Amino acid sequence: MTPTITVFERSPDGGRGLARDMRVRWALEEVGQPYDVRPVSFDGLKRPAHLARHPFGQIPTYEAGDLALFESGAIVLHLAERHEGLLPEDASARARAIGWLFAALNTVEPPIVEREQAPYVEGDQPWHAQRLPLLEARIRARLAQLSARLGEADWLDGAFSAGDLMMVMVLRRIEGIGVLEGFPNLVAYVARGEARPAYRRAFAAQRAVFADGGTTDGRA
Amino acid sequence: MTPTITVFERSPDGGRGLARDMRVRWALEEVGQPYDVRPVSFDGLKRPAHLARHPFGQIPTYEAGDLALFESGAIVLHLAERHEGLLPEDASARARAIGWLFAALNTVEPPIVEREQAPYVEGDQPWHAQRLPLLEARIRARLAQLSARLGEADWLDGAFSAGDLMMVMVLRRIEGIGVLEGFPNLVAYVARGEARPAYRRAFAAQRAVFADGGTTDGRA
């Protein structure tokens, strides 16, 4: 059966592919699973029909038959467990790849989201400019550790996995503010992810939503 | 084989059980798996031997045979997949329980950690007192959604699962500041988790580290 995912009706970032549906689109493309899309407006996120699918009123969601899932990490893992291509076969390597999926979401992403949201949450406060260096120093500390672990390898632990998919997407959220750019091996790592055919197909698909009439408010 | 987990050599929260090893201890107790403990000092977290196990220099880690894992979410999921007691058998219910594990870590925990760390990160800044209400409002918004979904149920989706284990531990991090206390069904939910025999055994074990000479600096 063809699964359905929810995405923003209008691309909030102008088609840059930073919204969390991109993670699921990419995973679906990696495993060769076609999917349908249900667009949701920003107002629609708070309506009962959507909250029944996603109690926190976000995207993406995933529906296939009697299964309804939310949380991009859970959806990517679900796909990775049921199809080939996103997790190694060896049990220990598989557990480690899933470890990187959690590291992307629980260790690397939180300080990045804080930095990303700061202008919206407190951009009008007098302390905003003073906090930015603190927020960026926190991200830099995490990236230094990640960069040291990655070294000269192509991917975080052997072959490309769901952990790399998620880490690349998380790192993309800070492109352009000069933090990621201080770690050339991480920049190259992100570029390797973006060069994958499945990534390109997913990116084109989310960008089409933007081209079809989405507007940008600059916020992912 | 008996797995080994790393824990703080000295309980940083005075035995309150808020450090992330408690999540793994609780999971191990739920599935009836004995374990060994390797204490790590705060200085030791940054040493090469520990960074080889955990690239971000944190606890817990998990080692069993040739497998070394980090990230509490990944370790709890690994245990839940290999033992009975933390995930339902039905495939869809299982995927949803894993979804709650991710929701605890990627949607509910980040604003809680921000609030928890604020006094340490910027407690000496003039804006600190002004930011606290913003930080707490963000947590409250998430808890309102979580509370609405939980309703009068005992657990988030059917029987107790790894998702509940993680959510209870995440919610415990904001006990006592008056935010969680505004949602009586969440307070009762946390209490149900704390009343489980496995939780009590795990709590006693981490507290013994404190009693054995740990000191408190008030920070998890």
TrEMBL record, chains A, B:
It comes from the Bacteria. SUPFAM superfamilies: GST C-terminal domain-like, Thioredoxin-like. It holds the Pfam family GST_N. Residues 8-87 form the GST N-terminal domain. This is Glutathione S-transferase family protein. It comes from Luteimonas endophytica.
